[in-house]
């Protein structure tokens, strides 16, 4: 399995668990269209947008109705589901982004947000992930190591505050903004650290096996202490 298919599978499972069959779906921040393509093959009517023209071109090659657009400057007919796949934390202003989502949702429709809370990563789990990366790198499983990620993990492990982009919304901010406008029906944590490994492995079945194993390890650790899971998933519904 290609490494990117693993996080795509997990994201699609989250979405389809909370969407009715053949829903009309808008994905905001579609990237190269892997999630949108998977939703389309499951019978959903999907429109996907991104600000990156090259990414949109790749999504179109997958057969996705992908468009270059800057949310919330987007006009369309109502959707049953609007999905922000790791994109909402970037969008400014947040209030306008969610107000527009409310306008474009059909009655009873849902905003689904998949994001992460790196700022909530505990030092012990930052250390665990750093050691896992070191082990994989020593075994030549990570041909494209991300030095900046390792520096961030070491900083968290040592209890240092990170000088992250203050223009990015935290997961807590996203949750509160959703709750102020919609009925929050689902809030969950999920494994997320394994996704960083996707950028460091080769795009081969062996690379996919490494990512799958890392997900299994992170899932097992979360069964002991779910604080290690920095993935955040929200489903917020518009009144019917």
UniProtKB/TrEMBL annotation:
It comes from the Bacteria. CDD domains: AdoMet_MTases. GO terms for biological process: methylation. Pfam families: Methyltransf_23. GO terms for molecular function: methyltransferase activity. InterPro entries: SAM-dependent_MTases_sf (IPR029063). Keywords: Methyltransferase, Transferase. PANTHER family: TRANS-ACONITATE 2-METHYLTRANSFERASE-RELATED. This is Class I SAM-dependent methyltransferase. The lineage of its organism: Bacteria, Pseudomonadati, Pseudomonadota, Gammaproteobacteria, Cellvibrionales.
